[in-house]
Design brief:
rod-shaped; mainly alpha
Length: 70
Amino acid sequence: MKKYIQEKINITKLFILTHLYKLNDNRGMGVVEVILIILVIVGLIVIFRTNIISIITSVFSKITSQVNSL
């Protein structure tokens, strides 16, 4: 019985240590950060879509008028 309890304690310690190691593993954090940045940029584009289109249109019309004046 004592050996069985000791074996269960060792298994529990091993389980806790492996999970603690996985919590400290930061290799995937870069991917998550990039995905969040992309989502924020896409959200801003969707929110300010009409403003962005009008700015781009005005810039290209100015460029076109200045090129035609040359």
